[in-house]
């Protein structure tokens, strides 16, 4: 469990170290000229200077120091400035800044078994220095490996789109914020054991794998064409029905079933054709 320490200010200890160093220089020079005792005092002052100097530490903004005393966790210093700690403590520097991780593009199968390419970008930082320092070997490597595992699990949990699974509530391509929220939760669950806080995670690259990209593009185009044709036919049928009703209600012309069929056929050709219909002057009648 992380324990935050508030060490004493290091300015007084710095002055004391400077006094010891000045004393060591003074007694060494005096000892060379007068007595060996001064040289011994100078050596003691210099040893004390080195000992207390080891207890001084400077912590930059958004950095911390994890302290240990002969293998026992003492605490973490998160304040900024010059501090003095027990010189026998060992310290480990740890950054608390937010970091970006641009994951490599992974090739993985989606829920329907289609090979896709996916990559994510995430923003993370160390939240619990104890877990980051002692619960995992190297927390930066742990973040990279677990983020890759989370992306693979996400890709295999959902289809790329709803071409094959029409009833899929969420797809990777259209999931948007929902997919990103699921990804963030997946990363949080995996990285919390290392004391890592996920601030943001987004899919940065998503596409079919190159070996099936062409086939899937043709399939998407065919689906779009069929959908468009369906709308055109629905609209044309409505317009033909409206035309027949108007002609009948306003008694513009009386049409028997055969003439109605011919009119419907002509209107459907005009409304559903890809090109503009060419007018043809008919000098005869339908029956001769």
From TrEMBL:
Q: Which domain of life is it from?
A: Bacteria
Alphabetized InterPro entries for the sequence: Band_7 (IPR001107), Band_7/SPFH_dom_sf (IPR036013)
Q: Which UniProt keywords apply?
A: Membrane, Transmembrane, Transmembrane helix
Q: Where is the Band domain?
A: 54-220
| Localization (cell) | Membrane
Q: What is its main location?
A: membrane
What sections of the protein cross the membrane? 12-29, 35-59
User: Where in the sequence is the signal peptide annotated?
Assistant: none
Q: Name one GO cellular component term.
A: membrane
The topology of this chain with respect to the membrane is: Single-pass membrane protein
Q: Name one Pfam family in it.
A: Band_7
User: SMART domains in the record, alphabetically?
Assistant: PHB
Q: Which PANTHER family match?
A: BAND 7 DOMAIN-CONTAINING PROTEIN (PTHR43446:SF1), MEMBRANE PROTEIN-RELATED (PTHR43446)
Can you say what this protein is called?
A: SPFH domain-containing protein
């Amino acid at each position: 469990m992380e324990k935050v320490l508030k060490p004493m200010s290091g300015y007084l200890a710095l002055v004391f170290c400077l006094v010891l160093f000045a004393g060591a220089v003074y007694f060494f020079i005096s000892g060379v000229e007068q007595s060996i005792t001064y040289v011994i005092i100078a050596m003691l002052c210099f040893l004390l200077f080195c000992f207390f100097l080891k207890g001084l530490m400077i912590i930059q903004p958004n950095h911390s120091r994890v302290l240990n005393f002969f293998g026992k966790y003492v605490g973490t210093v998160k304040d900024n400035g010059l501090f003095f700690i027990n010189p026998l403590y060992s310290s480990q520097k740890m950054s608390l800044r937010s970091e970006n991780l641009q994951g490599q593009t992974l090739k993985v199968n989606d829920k329907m078994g289609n090979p896709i390419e996916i990559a994510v970008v995430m923003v993370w930082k160390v939240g619990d220095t104890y877990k980051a320092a002692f619960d995992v070997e190297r927390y930066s490597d742990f973040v990279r490996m677990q983020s890759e595992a989370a992306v693979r699990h996400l890709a295999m949990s959902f289809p790329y789109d709803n071409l094959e699974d029409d009833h899929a509530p969420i797809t990777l391509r259209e999931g948007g914020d929902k997919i990103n929220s699921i990804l963030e939760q997946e990363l949080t669950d995996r990285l919390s054991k290392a004391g890592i806080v996920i601030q943001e995670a987004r899919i940065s690259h998503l596409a079919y794998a190159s070996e099936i990209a062409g086939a899937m593009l043709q399939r998407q185009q065919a689906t779009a064409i069929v959908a468009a044709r369906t709308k055109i036919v629905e609209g044309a049928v409505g317009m033909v029905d409206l035309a027949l009703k108007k002609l009948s209600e306003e008694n513009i012309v009386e049409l028997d079933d055969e003439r109605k069929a011919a009119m419907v056929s002509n209107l459907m050709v005009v409304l559903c054709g890809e090109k503009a219909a060419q007018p043809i002057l008919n000098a005869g009648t339908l029956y001769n």
